[in-house]
Design goal:
With 257 residues, the chain is an alpha/beta fold. The protein is 42% helix and 17% strand. It contains 10 helices and 10 strands. The protein has helices at 2-14, 24-34, 41-54, 79-85, 90-103, 117-125, 138-150, 163-166, 186-196, 215-226; strands spanning 59-61, 76-78, 107-111, 130-135, 156-160, 177-180, 205-209, 232-235, 239-243, 251-254.
């Protein structure tokens, strides 16, 4: 936690808003998506989904295959506590909705379904997208699959398994958007990044969750930024965005959201 606090202070000193951006592509993304203040009807549905989690007092036996929770250490966890301490926040779920609405990705991959809040937001943003989501914990996967079904989500394919095994079978596909939100360890993050580079197109975007989770995750983020295939990155502190647009010069941004 102290590491994150110190890094956030540094981020605030170096970050900017749209006025510090000279790339038309990034400027449009920031002004038309990141800072979009319109209230969408989908926000009410996203809020209802999250409320259903926060009021759910059932327990799930969680099997952590990744870095695990920094807050919850017991295997048996209340759904409401998972949603409160480890789930996607309402603000970030709304941003995911706007991102899929803005980019209109046809093929989306999510590493780490958890309780399905982010999955739900991705689906609402582009209902015609084909979304594949992978979850390592069988009990969490079963729970989210059932809840998403209750919320009439029909464009999501669920995979339960270890990321190391499952993504190897997916690299023959192309993905317009990949959300990395399952394993917050340096080596694992870099491995998934390198493996899934085979799936990118010129317009693909990778989104990495919790790039300041730990010193190791920040080191992974810095290595990703330097990769020759990466042209543009945006650091929003809680997420890191990676683009592969060949027509753009290599440039890195820190944007406050």
């Amino acid at each position: 936690m102290l590491y994150q606090v110190s890094q956030y202070t540094k981020f605030l000193l170096k970050s900017t808003n749209q006025h510090g951006v000279h790339s038309p592509f990034v400027y449009n993304l920031v002004t038309k998506c990141f800072y979009d203040k319109k209230h969408y009807k989908a926000y009410n549905i996203i809020s209802d989904y999250r409320k259903s989690l926060l009021t759910n007092k059932s327990k799930i036996e969680v099997i952590d295959l990744g870095a695990g929770s920094q807050v919850m250490k017991n295997k048996w966890r209340l759904v409401s506590e998972i949603a409160k301490n480890a789930g996607t926040t309402l603000k970030r779920a709304k941003l995911l909705f706007r991102l899929t609405q803005y980019f209109k990705p046809q093929h989306v991959l999510e590493l780490g379904t958890s309780l399905g809040l982010a999955t739900h937001a991705l689906s609402l943003g582009n209902p015609v997208a084909k979304i594949t989501t992978i979850e390592g914990c069988p009990n969490t996967s079963a729970f989210s699959q059932e809840l998403l079904k209750n919320f009439k989500v029909k464009n999501v394919s669920h995979i339960h398994g270890d990321f190391n095994d499952e993504i190897e079978a997916l690299v023959s596909s192309e993905y317009n958007l990949i959300f990395f939100d399952g394993d917050h360890k340096k080596d694992a993050t870099l491995k998934y990044f390198e493996t899934l580079l085979k799936t990118v197109t010129n317009n693909s975007v990778f989104i990495f969750d919790d790039i300041y989770w730990s010193k190791g995750m920040t080191e992974a983020w810095e290595i990703i930024k330097k990769h020759p295939k990466v042209t543009v990155t945006i650091d929003t502190f809680f997420w890191g965005f990676v683009f592969f647009r060949k027509e753009q010069v290599k440039e890195h941004f820190k944007i406050r959201i």
